């Protein structure tokens, strides 16, 4: 099955070469490749972020002049449009080649837990020392997000209810949420990258359960200053 998907993906990329912008025009093959890989190889539903506009590209392309996550959120299409259909993904990024790549979290797709970058680095060191097997980690200059297996809001609520304290710096991306994926530009500047790239298994990239990592993330986040926006990567 993976070989068939790989051949289809390559044929689609070859077809898109004729649609690539001419030299000197804007475009980013890496974003298209990343979106197609997520949708076809991993079956992660994706959609393009709204992106930026203006002469300096610092202003969000959405109508909100005070947008706190410029460029890094859904707008048109909305989050419900997220798909694994490679034809739709190719159409989006052919028409908007610099659009950020957004993962629609929850359902059958990965969920995530994010926290400030320094605190996350400490938590990862602790989990590694415990021999914990971690999944993909998305990193920006300000926040890291650990991808975990899908969880329900009820399950998450029960898990957090048992904690004495859940820091505001810790953010959860589950059903109805989204996550900015590499190699998208980060909303606060810089670029989103893989701190740990997805490890492919028979059923897609391996993901730990949220219970396996939440204690270390809660402890690391307790000393973090400034929770920031849940979308400020």
Put the structure in a nutshell.
The chain has 233 residues and is an alpha+beta fold. It contains six helices and twelve strands.
Topology of helices and strands:
Elements: H1 2-17, H2 29-41, E1 46-48, E2 52-53, E3 59-60, H3 86-95, E4 101-104, E5 111-116, H4 117-129, E6 137-139, E7 143-148, H5 153-161, E8 171-173, E9 178-181, E10 193-196, E11 200-201, E12 204-205, H6 210-222
Antiparallel strand pairs: 1-4, 2-3, 4-9, 5-7, 5-8, 6-7, 6-10, 11-12
Helix pairs in contact: 1-2, 2-3, 4-6
Keywords:
6 helices; 233 residues; 18% strand; three-stranded antiparallel sheet; alpha+beta; single chain; five-stranded antiparallel sheet
Give the tally of β-strands.
12
The string of secondary-structure elements, in order, is: HHEEEHEEHEEHEEEEEH
Poorly predicted sequence stretches spanning 5 or more consecutive residues:
15-27, 226-233
The helix fraction, in percent, is 25-40%
Q: What fraction of residues sit in β-strands?
A: 15-25%
Distance between the termini: 34 Å
Spatial strand order of the main sheet? 8-5-7-6-10
- What is the mean predicted local confidence, pLDDT? 85
Radius of gyration in whole Å, from Cα? Answer: 18 Å
Query: Which structural class matches the secondary elements?
Result: alpha+beta
Sum up the overall morphology in one term. globular
The biggest sheet, with number of strands, parallel, antiparallel or mixed sense and barrel status, is: 5 strands, antiparallel
SS summary, helix count: 6
């Amino acid at each position: 099955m993976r070989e068939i998907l790989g051949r289809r993906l390559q044929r689609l990329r070859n077809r898109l070469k004729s649609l690539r912008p001419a030299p000197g025009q804007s475009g980013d093959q890496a974003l298209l490749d990343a979106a197609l890989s997520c949708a076809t190889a991993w079956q992660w539903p994706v959609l393009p972020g709204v992106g930026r506009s203006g002469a300096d590209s610092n202003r969000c392309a959405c109508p909100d002049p005070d947008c706190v996550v410029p460029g890094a959120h859904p707008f048109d299409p909305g989050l419900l449009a997220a798909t694994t259909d490679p034809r739709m993904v190719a159409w989006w990024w052919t028409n908007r080649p610099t659009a950020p790549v957004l993962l629609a979290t929850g359902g059958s797709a990965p969920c995530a837990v994010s926290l400030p970058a320094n605190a996350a680095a400490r938590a990862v060191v602790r989990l590694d020392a415990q021999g914990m097997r971690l999944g993909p980690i998305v990193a920006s200059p300000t926040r890291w997000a650990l991808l975990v297996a899908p969880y329900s809001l009820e399950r998450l609520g029960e898990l957090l209810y048992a904690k004495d304290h859940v820091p505001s710096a810790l953010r959860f991306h589950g059903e109805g949420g989204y996550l900015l994926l590499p190699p998208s530009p980060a909303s606060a500047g810089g670029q989103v990258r893989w701190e740990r790239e997805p490890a492919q298994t028979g059923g897609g990239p391996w993901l730990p359960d949220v219970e396996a990592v939440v204690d270390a993330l809660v402890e690391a986040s307790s000393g973090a200053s400034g929770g920031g926006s849940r979308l400020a990567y």
